[in-house]
Amino acid sequence: MTQALPKLLTFNEFIEWYPNDEKRYELHKGVIVEMPPPTGSHEKVIAFLSRKLTVEFDRLNLPYGIPKTAFIQTPSAESAYSPDVFLLNLDNLDNEPLFQKQSTVSQAASVPIVIEVVSTNWRDDYYNKFRDYEEMGIPEYWIADYAALGARKFIGNPKQPTIFVCELVDGEYQMTAFQGNTAISSPTFPQLNLTAQQIFNAAN
């Protein structure tokens, strides 16, 4: 007996379906995925990173902002992610056909930095989103694994809380790991004064 494959949704079908039920959903390769409810520690890390980045782009008078809820649509248009933190380049939004009505961007020029704070679905951040953000050409992607949930091949054995800064070089992400009191090096914000431990402390 053959089993019918589930129907894959387009991005437009996903947006039309999206319910107003206070839950968060993403579209992963045409499949709707309900995101796990965030913990308090997860939210505190998001708040801390948002504050640090806001202070920096405000100091530099850059045309950036951090949206409360917005989607990044991947080039294949089969996925739509709602990152934990990402910077919008407000100067490029006139070139984004979906932003005004659907709060969605699809161009790398609109996203200087995207950050995923790792939770129980850590494989999405380390594999799927890593691949899709890389393909899209987003210049800087952070994986904030404050609770050391990722695989040992990434964060060591025994596992250690780690921040990865992935810089796009010749179309591929180069991952740099930061642990403990190591100062984080951000290509977008070279003068950012921030250590990995400060981010980990924010979760407490």
- Count of the separate structural domains: 1
What structural category characterises the helix and strand content? alpha+beta
Uncertain stretches: none
User: Between the first and last Cα atoms, what is the distance in angstroms?
Assistant: 52 Å
- Label the overall shape: globular
Give the full name of the CATH homologous superfamily.
tt1808, chain A
Order of helices and strands: HEEHEEEEEHEEHEHEEH
The tally of strands reads 12
CATH-derived topology: tt1808, chain A
**What is the gyration radius calculated from CA atoms?**
17 Å
Organism: Nostoc sphaeroides CCNUC1
InterPro entries: Nuclease_put_TT1808 (IPR012296), Restrct_endonuc-II-like (IPR011335), Uma2 (IPR008538)
GO molecular function: endonuclease activity
Keywords: Endonuclease, Hydrolase, Nuclease
Structural notes for this entry:
Strand 1 and strand 2 (31-34) form a beta hairpin. The mean pLDDT is 94. The chain has 6 helices and 12 strands. The chain is globular. The strands form 4 sheets. Strands 6-9-10-11-12 form a 5-stranded mixed beta sheet, with helices on both faces. It is α+β, with helices and mostly antiparallel strands. It has a single domain, classed as tt1808, chain A (Alpha-Beta Complex), CATH 3.90.1570.10. The termini are far apart.
